[in-house]
Amino acid sequence: MATAITIGEYITTRSGGRFDPLDATTILLIGQAECELTFLCNESVSNKAIALLVMHWLTLEENGSQGSGSTGTASKLKEGDLSIEFMMSSNNNQGIDPYLGLTPYGLELWRLGRNCIITIGNRCVF
Q1: What is the pTM of this model?
Q2: What pLDDT was estimated at residue 3?
Q3: Residue 39 in 3-state DSSP?
Q4: 41-78 burial, b for 16+ CB within 10 Å, e for fewer?
Q5: Which of 4, 9, 80, 84 has the fewest CB atoms within 10 Å, measured from its CB?
């Protein structure tokens, strides 16, 4: 029987090495994601979902730290006196959670959740 891919392995593979699973911030986020998500699926799906949530958070943090603080699709652009407007998500008509729709990792987590029962847990206290 094959062993499930670990959370760290999934982060490394899926992000193409963009995110380091051994980074202190990533380790803390993994712990938080494990506390926030409770799974009724197999370990492989749980590890994938936790990794996707962590990469979602890291992507949002990365976007904010670059000074833009914006995510989503650009809906309006203007060149003189630079003006850019962003849409939250173009997927709302499909029932996609607007927060998860902000990154490709969040969208993948949303799709994964549609195929598996994922519940929010509150068993961890920090």
Answers
A1: 0.71
A2: 74
A3: strand
A4: eeeebbbbbbbbbbbbbbbbeebeeeeeeebbeeeeee
A5: 80
The structure tokens 């982060």 sit at 11
- In degrees, rounded to 5, the angle at the alpha carbon of residue 57 between the alpha carbons of residues 27 and 77 is 150
Tokens 């926030």 locate to 36
Q: What is the DSSP letter of 26?
A: H
* Dist CA 75 CA 84 (whole Å): 8
Token output for 49:
């979902």
Complete DSSP assignment for 73-91: EEEEEETTTTEEEEES-TT
pLDDT at 27: 96
CB 76 within 8 A of CB 55: no
